[in-house]
Amino acid sequence: METQENATAPSARPAAGQRRRRTAGRVAAALVCVAALFVLVARFLPLPGLGDLFGTRTHDRTGPAVLKSLRDMSRFEGAAGDYQVVVDLEKDAPFLPDAIRGTRTLYVAAGSVSAYVDLGGLGEQAVSVNEDRTEAVLTLPRAALGSTALDPGRSYAVSKQRGLLDRLGDLFSDNPGGEQAVQKLAVQRIDEAAGASGLTQRAEKNTTAMLEGLLRSLGFEKVTVTYA
After folding, report:
1. What pLDDT score was predicted for residue 110?
2. What gap in Å lies between CA 208 and CA 67, rounded to an integer?
3. pTM of the model
4. Residue 16 has what pLDDT?
5. CA–CA separation, 93 vs 114, rounded Å?
6. H/E/C letters for each residue in the chain?
7. What is the largest CA-CA distance in the chain?
8. pLDDT at residue number 173
9. How far apart are CA 199 and CA 145, in angstroms?
10. 181: closest CA among 100, 91, 97?
11. Is-contact 133 219, C-beta < 8 A?
12. Which regions in the chain score pLDDT beneath 70?
């Protein structure tokens, strides 16, 4: 009898350990199910107090803006235009499939460009007035385009496709998924559109009207504005 009890005792201990592991596994699975159910209830069936438990909060730790420089403006902005362009930029490797190495970004960019006439460099020779101060002739520089200002509120990426190597590179990048390349190309395209849309001619026309109205209010009967 002693020999039989000693033979069965070792097999009873592993069975008890397996039962404990199975019980622990069931408990863990039950806890995961309960937690998942709790999250789903809080997400789709909001209860008082649960929304704050799973919600996110935004902390603005931005410091105050620092003034770097001041510039006196001596130009008259006679016109401005709003533009939009869809940039489709693709980069690939010649000997690798796009799924391994390559990017393609579809980006909608919106920005504005102003056209101005610089009045700060005018000398005495640029203004001619007759003796009785009834006629004035002004010679101004041609209107120029200002820098394109992209509107971040109306510019966005529609889609981004990246190869496996590019995705891995983003893991070690300080600026993953950067959009500098598409934004630079968007600025270039908007500059080209502004130059072809007659914005500078409109600025010269509005500048002429402004100066004519100003000088006529000062008593000049005839005002001539030319652009060199």
Report:
1. 96
2. 35
3. 0.64
4. 66
5. 39
6. CHHHHHHHHHHHHHHHHHHHHHHHHHHHHHHHHHHHHHHHHHHHCCCCCHHHHHCCCCCCCCCCCCCCCCCCCCEEEEEEEEEEEEEEEEEECCCCCCCCCEEEEEEEEEEEEEEEEECCCCCHHHEEECCCCCEEEEEECCCEECCCEECCCCCEEEEEEECHHHHHHHHCCCCCCCCHHHHHHHHHHHHHHHHHCCHHHHHHHHHHHHHHHHHHHCCCCEEEEEEC
7. 140
8. 55
9. 8
10. 91
11. yes
12. 1-17, 32, 34-55, 92, 95, 97-101, 163-178
Task: Pull the structure tokens for residue 186.
Answer: 């968007």
CB contact at 8 A, 165 and 102 = no
pLDDT given for residue 1 in this prediction: 45
pLDDT attached to residue 55: 62
**Inter-residue contact 118 to 68 (CB < 8 Å):** no
* Size of the chain in residues: 228
Say which amino acid occupies 92. Answer: D
- Compute the distance between CA of residue 190 and CA of residue 83 in angstroms, rounded to an integer: 6
pLDDT at 48: 59
Residue 114 identity = S
CB-count exposure of residue 163 (10 Å: 0-12, 13-18, 19+): buried
Instruction: Collect all residues with Cβ–Cβ distance below 8 Å to 22 and sequence separation of at least 6.
Output: none
Distance CA 228, CA 209 (A): 17
Tokens of 122: 């005018």
Confidence at residue 117, expressed as pLDDT on a 0 to 100 scale: 94
